[in-house]
Design brief:
The chain has helices at about 10-25, 35-40, 55-75, 95, 110-120, 165-175, 195-200, 210-220, 240-245; strands at about 80-85, 105-110, 125-130, 150-155, 180-185, 225-230, 255-264. By secondary structure, the protein is α/β, with parallel strands linked by helices. The relative contact order is 0.13.
Length: about 260
């Protein structure tokens, strides 16, 4: 067994491991054999194992399946469309959802892309490019043709951004793409509370109280925008929290990361 894990930063490895772990349980929310195979070659650090792992796993798996559902809908409507995954980390969505026709671009810093190359196989419709949420040099160099259907996905990287960085990134995409569909995971403003941490949330660099208001302020020409909480997902493992939410409905979009789905 090759011990790659001690070299991989835990912030990269833990999401991969959580998906692998979810794949091994009965009636898991996702099945990710690519993650499971990669994790067999890795040695987990203590940081990966910290906290309530079962709840972190449920939160991550729920957000993952919610993202998968939206990307699948996009590819069903646009089989030859482009997916631009910003801050890809060790995401394996391409391998789960590839329809044999789409084009997929993974965008991240060089160090993370090197780990992708070591752990995952390549594909002729699958591209790696250097770039991150925090810079803008890559935006005009994307090999995405004009006037093709595009979905921008950012599942983890925005959680490490301040609100100012988040607004700049959204406006950058709005300037680059005349029309696009987008899928973002952002943090509610009460994630760092005791309840938020019990739900599996961590310390994030921003917290949005009214995400719809914020996003439409940053990009006024958004046509449609929805906000989805992982607690809303139809899963028996969320039932206790769903009962709690009935009593405190104002917290639905405040105590966990949220899925923003929009188009312009």
């Amino acid at each position: 067994m090759t011990n790659l894990g001690h070299k991989i930063p835990s912030r990269l490895l833990q999401p991969l491991w959580l998906r692998s772990r979810e794949s091994m349980i009965d009636n898991g929310l996702i099945y990710d054999p690519i993650a499971a195979a990669a994790c067999q070659r890795c040695h987990l650090s203590a940081e990966c194992l910290s906290g309530d792992i079962d709840q972190k796993q449920l939160l991550h798996a729920t957000l993952t399946v919610q993202c998968d559902q939206q990307v699948s809908k996009f590819l069903k409507s646009n089989p030859s469309g482009w997916v631009v995954n910003v801050g890809a980390g060790l995401d394996t969505r391409f391998y789960r959802l590839d329809n044999g026709r789409c084009h997929w671009l993974e965008l991240d810093i060089n160090e993370n892309l090197l780990w992708r190359q070591k752990l995952f196989h390549t594909n002729e419709r699958y591209y790696l490019r250097c770039g991150s949420v925090g810079d803008d040099h890559w935006i005009d160099e994307l090999p995405v043709p004009n006037n093709v259907p595009v979905m921008i996905v950012c599942e983890q990287a925005l959680l490490d951004c301040t609100k100012t960085q988040l607004s700049k990134f959204i406006q950058l995409l709005g300037r680059r793409f005349n029309h696009a569909e987008a899928l973002f995971v952002v943090a509610g403003d009460r994630c760092n509370t005791m309840i938020g941490k019990k739900l599996g949330s961590a310390e994030y660099q921003h917290g949005l109280h009214q995400p719809k208001h914020d996003f439409t302020g940053w990009l006024p020409w958004i046509e449609n925008l929805s906000v989805t909480s992982p607690i809303e997902h139809n899963c028996t493992r969320w039932k206790a929290w769903q009962r709690w939410l009935v009593k405190f409905p104002l917290f639905k979009h405040r105590v966990t990361p949220l899925l923003i789905h929009m188009n312009w």
